[in-house]
Amino acid sequence: MATDITFEQVNYSYQAGTPFAVQALKDINLKITPGSFTAVIGQTGSGKSTLIQHLNALLKPSSGTVTIGQRVITTETKNKHLKPLRKKVGMVFQFPENQLFEETVLKDIAFGPQNFGVSETDAEVLAKRMAGEVGLDGSLLERSPFDLSGGQMRRVAIAGVLALEPEVLVLDEPTAGLDPRGRLEIMTLVTRLREEQGLTIVLITHQMDDVANYADHVIVMGHGALLKQGSPRVIFSDPKWLQEHQLGLPSATKFAYELQQGGFKFDHMPLTVTDLADQIAPQLSKGAHPHE
Amino acid sequence: MAIIQVENLNYQYSNSDTKAIDDVSFEIQAGDWVAIVGHNGSGKSTLAKLLIGLMAADSGKITIDGQVLTPDTVWQIREKVGMVFQNPDNQFVGATVADDVAFGMENRSVDRDTMVTKVDYALKQVGMLDYKDREPANLSGGQKQRVALAGIIAIAPKILILDEATSMLDPRGRQEILSVIQQLKEDLNLTVLSITHDIDEAANADRLVVIDDGHFVEEATPEELFTHGKELVDMGLDVPLPEKLKDALRERHIEVPHSYLDEGGLANWLRTSRLNK
Amino acid sequence: MNKVMFGRFIPGHSWVHRMDPRAKLVLSFLYIAVVFFANDVWTYAIMTLLLLLSVAASKIPLRVYIRGLLPLFWLMIFTVLIQVFFGAGGHVYWQWGWLVVSQNGLNSAGLILMRFVLIILVSTILTFTTEPLEIADGIESLLNPLRKLHFPVATLALMLSLALRFVPTLMDEAEKIMNAQRSRGVDFGEGGLRQRIRTIVPILIPLFVNAFNRAVDISTAMEARGYQDGENRTKYRQLKWHRVDTASLVIYVVSLSAVIVLRYFI
After folding, report:
1. Among A261, B9, B77, C188, fewest CB within 10 Å belongs to which?
2. What's the whole-model pTM score?
3. B33 and B95 Cβ atoms separated by less than 8 Å
């Protein structure tokens, strides 16, 4: 039942076999375990987007194998039999509101399941449930998706992917262009989906605070190669290496390094504000906490 | 001297029941950097478009650099204002980098020799001279926004309006654009009006104007506003790290200063309060 | 996408690449016009020679041009067959019912094929060596005299240049939308015609909506940057007529005149 995804020696070239060939992925080995929250970080153009398109077989490796659940995908795999994978691995692209097309919000959310043989009535029941899941008001369901605000359109698009009832949810910068409140709402939704429905999450992001707050596994991409992978604590324990690869630190971690220079001691570098406060509170002088 | 004056401005979209801008008044002094903040849909971008007559207000008065905005003065006012929008692709009209920088000058009938000099000069200022003949398809979002800024340098306006100009960029692109803008403001003695959700961009401003549901809510310095803590999220801003940490320390019964401290300030305060073991 | 060579620009620094787009446009048109005067071995020999000379001057291998012809292969076969069967007169080689293969038919088929190939090749030289934008500039410059008749030449040119500018952006967007819909279970290129038409809707509607929103943004940005009307603007891009252009013009005019002279006076 549980779908895990494994990459073994995956290479991918755009326009393979032509003089214009560009190698976008180089020898990628990784594993995404069921129920995990994986963050993929790396600069623009590092191969993140190419990588995630292998997760639901939109792209097939030029060499090497991608295993999604029971299915093994190689360069020879025929396109015909890949469709069931798209239901298992839901994909929310960047600015997903750009994929909306139906007359009503309800129909748009119900579009995906019907492509997998779900009847219209069943798909609409599913769509109503998913609309509730992403926090869309019921009164919006019969409206045209193009009349909604940007944030609402994005929720419709996410609901449309959730309606496929995937086991793995891949999100490419789902908060890009939203205001802080919108960003927080989307990230809260993603966490809830994982906790309540046991969804496996793969998130591409530039927000190191999100990586620190939500992920349990981090993949760092650079120039098409997998540079490093591990827990956020491992990844953020080497600020010099991150800087060399033009990646930042979570704001709490960055601040902690600054405090370290000022004499504060940390048994591990804190990733979140809570962790930071826990560690520095005992080190502050009595005069600073008169409530005791 | 106030370079931008807005008095009792009102605007309502024809397909909406409520006003997008409801009786808003404020002033911006020449040489200031003012950020307009507010959550999405609060009317910020509408305000920016009204300021240079891209939409006409229902009522109220806008005065830019001593000129009242009317259909007769709108083109003269636009001469004085450079504007950078949110989507890097949708404002890049030239076929190449150099063509795009020249676009604003072509509209102002600048002669060709001057254009050639100014295009090179402006591109140098934003560090994009090596990309002069590139096509936009081969540029990153941050590079396109730098080209947009070069287009503004070339026409040397008095006022720069940034309409969420960094919101679609990655952190690196955002940082690059912010430092270019800071440099420009100094060099050209610009007045900057930035509409933003970005806490770093807001922190750069001299003053913040908070707008909510088309209403003017308050005007404050970043230091004053940032002490609002969690309420900042409702104003379309993130809570700055020092405020988050102060909150967390308060929960742990540690008395922390009420006034706003930036990261350096808080680090200093923490250092002096540290137990010497 | 990359299999189609026809109409594609190939960067380079050859004689032809360096030419003024106006010269290339004018010479291509002249050439195409004179092709229709060629009627025998000698005139066609001159035309072919001139073309091969131009191909050589473009420093792009002939086989790349031939590959550019391939997509039009069936159209050429079809045209030739029509000419063969319906061009009547002269010695009859073969007949079956109303289908006749005659000397005249074969002759005119040969002529048509030759013309076809020459015209396509000469236009391919133009597109291989000239950026679309330069072609737009060239057209604008050549249409300039129409300004006197209040024809909006500059506006038209700006429209053309904007359209060219956004082709890659829209192609990119189409690909993203296709990927998104594929992820929602759409099968492209499968099933019957009706099924295929149905799968186009989820691409076309978002593409159209996005393009429309983009257009609104672009026009706002243009207006904010001081764009009022197309005609009273100065131009940053300028075309320069070089010696290569004059030289090419002389070569073409002499050769093409030779064809006319051979046709009518000898």
Report:
1. A261
2. 0.87
3. no
